UniProtKB/TrEMBL annotation:
It comes from Nonomuraea soli. The keyword Lipoprotein does not apply. This is DoxX family protein. Keywords: Membrane, Transmembrane, Transmembrane helix. Pfam families: DoxX_2 (PF13564). Coiled coil: none annotated.
Length: 120
């Protein structure tokens, strides 16, 4: 396992973990973002579960490489959809979470590329 994967994977896992908690506890920011994007509030907790699963998968990937690869692919897809939802809603301002979604997508792509470079 490469040191680069541990570093970027840890950053991604921590960020995903924080986002998961915010969604799972129905934090005000998650509710505001869902409302601004026209998403039903009932999806907030399932999004939190997906984020938590992504964080867990990235961490498990430190020991079981194929799990890390699968998690990285899943997180990339999750945030590509998130960016598309922001674009559909024409919600590009920082208050809508668009910069965060883009940053998460880019970080997930970096983790995926580093995982692939390190070998599965």
């Amino acid at each position: 396992m490469s040191g680069a994967y541990v570093v970027v994977g840890t950053v991604l896992a921590l960020a995903l973990g924080l986002a998961a908690v915010l969604n799972l506890v129905h934090h005000r920011t998650a509710i505001i973002t869902a409302d601004r994007l026209g998403l039903p509030r009932s999806l907030i907790r399932p999004f939190g579960v997906l984020l938590a699963a992504g964080a867990a998968g990235v961490v498990i990937g430190f020991v079981v490489p194929w799990v890390g690869l699968a998690a990285a692919i899943g997180v990339v897809l999750y945030f590509l959809v998130a960016v598309a939802v922001h674009v559909r809603a024409r919600a590009f301002l920082p208050a809508t979470g668009f910069p965060g979604a883009v940053a998460f997508a880019l970080l997930a792509v970096v983790v995926l590329l580093v995982r692939l470079q390190a070998g599965v």
